[in-house]
Amino acid sequence: MLNSETLTAITKYLDMGTCSEWDEEKKLEFLTRELKGKRLLVPPSMEGTLRSTEQGEMVQSKFGQSITDCTQTAGGVLLATLHPPHPPQEQKCSLMEEISKISCQNYWSVVYKNPEFLT
Fold it and tell me: Which keywords annotate this record (predicted)?
């Protein structure tokens, strides 16, 4: 379900009260009305795009979960918008780059230079 902290921030911003005090029916009514409405759930200033895909066999099994899926997606987008991740630290990036080089070298060594490795 939509993160309650995010939903509370939205409803307080809209002067609608605290959603954590609402019953489940009122929450679903609010979410359904918002998803059908013309109000933007994501600020126009947000850069980038969102693409969500599902494998064919999953569509049938998840159809009954459509409201939950929409609220999870909206909640994730809102959280990422309200609390964007910090940029990676340069020290961590260089460390990850070194780990990647060592990993690749070891992989190639095992797969392509080891005569006992089955291909």
Answer: Lyase, Pyruvate
